[in-house]
Amino acid sequence: MKNLKKFFGFVVALSMTLSLSGVVSTPILAVEENTDQVTEDQTVTETPTEEKKDEADTGEAPVTDEIQGEVVTEQPTTPESDNTEELAETDVARNLTTGATYELLDTAVEEATEGDTIELLKDADLTKGFNKTLTFTGNGKITTNKQLTSDGEGWMCFGLYDSSRELTLDGAGLTWEWKSEVGTAPWLMLSLSGKLNITNGATLSMTVDSGSTGSRNAIYMNAGSEINVTNGGHFNIFGYSTDGKEGQGLQLDNTGQAKVNVTGGSTFLIDGTNRGYVNSPEIYVDNSQFTVQNCTANASNGGVFTATNYAVVKYLNNAGHGLSASRVNLSNYTNFESDNNGYYGVYASADLQVDGTSTLKVTRNSYNGDFAGLKLTSGVTDGHVQDGAVVTITNNYCSGLSNNGNIKFDDNVNLTIVDNVNDKGKTSNGGGIYNSGNAANLILPQNALIYNNSAKTAGDDIYNGNGAKLQISQPSIGNILTRDGDDTNEDQAITNWFYDGANPNYSGKMKNGETARWNQYKYVKTFTMPEAGENVTGNIGLKAAYAPVTTFTPIDLTMYVGGEGYENVDKVEDNDTSNGFPEPGYYVTLPKEINNAIQSNGQPVDLSEETNNFSFEYTYNYNNGEELRHWKMTKYTDADGSESTKDGNYVYSLALADGRKPTLRVIDDAGNIQTNANFDLTNAVNKVYTTMVGSVEGDSFTSGEINESKSLTANVQTDTIDVDFDRTVIATGKLYVRGVVNVTDENLITSIQKDGTDPKAGVPMATVPEGTNFYINGEEGLEVQKNADPSLLYDDILPEGTDANNDRREGWLTEKAEQLCNQYGLLEQAGITNPQYSFKYMDIVDQNNGNVVLKADKNVTVYMPYPEGVDKDTSIIVLHYKDLNRDMTYDDVQSAIMNCEMEKMTVTQLDDHIEFETTSFSPFVVIWGTDEAGEIVKNKDRADTGLFQNAPLYISLMTACASLVAIIAIKRRIDAK
Fold first, then answer.
1. Which of 346, 439, 592, 726 has the smallest CB count inside 10 Å?
2. Smallest Cα–Cα separation from 415: which of 438, 440, 443?
3. Rounded to an integer, what distance in angstroms lies between the CA atom of residue 341 and that of residue 438?
4. What's the rounded Cα separation, in Å, for the pair 721 and 153?
């Protein structure tokens, strides 16, 4: 240990000796412990070897050394003069041409000569203007907060007397922030006669503050001057407090005599100035971003504008025009957007060219006046938007497209003109498109989306003025119209073009003097599309809209299997009526407002008869258009001429003029076509089908909405209405089919007779009073047709099958009857022991129309044959299971039986029939008794004493008597005490 201390002491003494003698040495221990480490207070400067210099010259990646976690980049050497000065810590700039270094940037600029390059070493201020070709490079920020002047002017004049001069900012490490000086109120900051170049990632940002500084222009561009932002350069002009004041970004001395080029992934921004650029510069944007936004007046004013090669161009939130130019050319995947500008979004006075790869988006413009989204003047003589281009013109506060020139949109242009509102002027025509003037020739793509626009005066979507030519797009069929100018109109799918406020074939006024604007309840006139390539001419206003819907709705029907069927069921041979399906009846629905207008004293409108203010014809083309078939509607009327109604509308049958009926298609839930109403009762009590009515041509069945092969011609015209109908919807209906047990029984169906008719022995029958009306499905107003045959359906209870539920069905019915009899002592009253039960199911149907269920509006008298062995001397009880119809599922049978309401019928026992009256139908049961030997008991005199009918009264009397007895007993006890 002592020897080690002596060794350290020797080393220290040796080091001190060498230091005193002027020899610099690295401590030996430091080198031995870690030769790669450098202490914090040391600086390592590596002089490139010849080999490394060669690598730098070849453009290879710079050599790096890691020093304490930092990366030191070896910079390529820059040619310097032989008299390069050593850098001092206070130096801010170096003249790379002369090698001189400077502590002040002003001095470096002042002493530089034409063409010198000044390297910025650190952040520095520049307070003096200059007028000589200079290049600035290096790393750091130049800050200018003073008004720069030169050449005896109150501003910096660059290129004055020599327009070949160039001011260049070069390099990503270089930024110049140039702000106008407070309180000087100069007319401009820079008068440019030469070229201003910002390249290789350099940034120039100028600030015009029209409030605190009073500056009026950032750059005043003289004839021949250029601003070139290249290779990733960034050019910005910011404006503050410019509203209502001078404060332009760029202003030209001579119209169209200066250029702005933004190329090579660069950016150009003017933000918040009063006017962005003025007096028509020529602007070229290539693979770069160009933005003018938040100007308090126009963003632009004239000039030629070209953007190409994935350029991104934006004019946003300017109080005046967005892009205003003579010629606009967008190509090679340019993306152009003009949004939320107060005047025109895009204004072109000489030409508009958009190639098939580019996008033009013009939205929310013209909020400050009566302008447009996209404006093309009569000077545009050969404008062209090519196939594949995407042009979106939406939500502008005036016409979306206002055209006075000659412009063609190719057929495969994706053009959308939607949700524009023109309401600024005294007369405001053409919310979507305003095409006017003798020079106007607008060719639209066939499938453009033009809808949901609005104009105060005429032509919500399109207005074509006198002298203008227009090749119109197809209507935007299927899109939903939501902007219709009237809250009473419903949102519906567009079906066609309709006249709107200007119609050359119409006076343009209603009979009451109102302007004839499209309204589905007041004015609907269809515009006929011209042939492809033909022009629309004349004063025309159009709207993509819809005609009011006329709906043919088949009545939902409930029926029983076994009736005479309809003669024209799909997939069934003609005139084969054994299918059992009923004839469809329809009710035709018009819009309520129109229906009310043409009603007489609130009565439904008869659509089958032409009147002074209404005509209706439904036709369709058959056999590939060779035959035009005319459908005839006939009102449902009964034998007395009473008319059927449904929901306030008459009910009709449809037939051709020659008597042929439309085709009925019946399908189940799986979409299978049904050809017969019969089904297997062991698996279902009923079936539910969907009915569709249409036409069959070959193997094609047409239903639903009327398509091109069909048409509806109808017109309603009054003082306040002039509406053409051009579409009809044939809705689907439901068919509820109830099963029948004795389908082949000749007594299953018997026609209902008038009261007083005697029944035939053994045959069930029903009678009704004179004047009884029968209603389909029991719906009041829906009367049967005159050829109807109301009949009594007399069937057995559904059979017991293999299903467990089937085995119990009659057992449940018996159990329900026993509960009632036991509750009220009915069997004892009738003297019935060992009760026997006979069940029958009854209903009223129209046997001439598929056994459709009917209901009478008066009581029906039923004549029910006696069960075997029972006669008029047998004491019987007849009970009715009310509303227990065959419309439940098998799983619901038990609960339906046990929960149904029961009623005891008042009967008269005739020689061959049991007679009773009822207002409804479902299962009935006849109950009688037998003795121990099984013989039927004849004790009729005790039957039907009426006790059951008065049971509630008797129960009340008994309760009252019991209460009275109790009161008397209590009183006696009190008296006894």
1. 592
2. 443
3. 29
4. 75
